[in-house]
Specification:
single chain, mainly beta, 6-stranded antiparallel sheet
């Protein structure tokens, strides 16, 4: 993550030799199986060239609690997947 988080701040990551911008969009409350996190940082990334977009939510003191990614299959149909934190113990 770019530290400290701030709306509009971001970085780039590489997928299939394509540089994709990742930016902090806003702060949101998120509920996952591990609980409710009232002020996560929501990041977004998108690339038209490889037909990919993703949203992630990071909770302070915990890290990544949820990610949703959407891809386009070779036939153009969408395919998405969600991963979320199911249990957490922060010490």
């Amino acid at each position: 993550l770019a530290v400290p988080p701030a709306q509009g701040k971001g970085w780039h990551r590489v997928i299939s030799a394509t540089s994709i911008p990742v930016r902090f969009a806003d702060q949101q409350a998120v509920t996952v199986k591990a609980g409710t996190y009232p002020q996560t940082w929501h990041t977004v990334e998108e690339s038209d060239s490889i037909r990919f977009k993703s949203s992630s939510w990071y909770a302070p003191g915990v890290g990544l609690v949820k990610i949703y990614s959407e891809y386009a299959r070779k036939d153009g149909s969408p395919w998405g997947e969600t991963f979320e934190l199911t249990d957490a113990s922060v010490k």
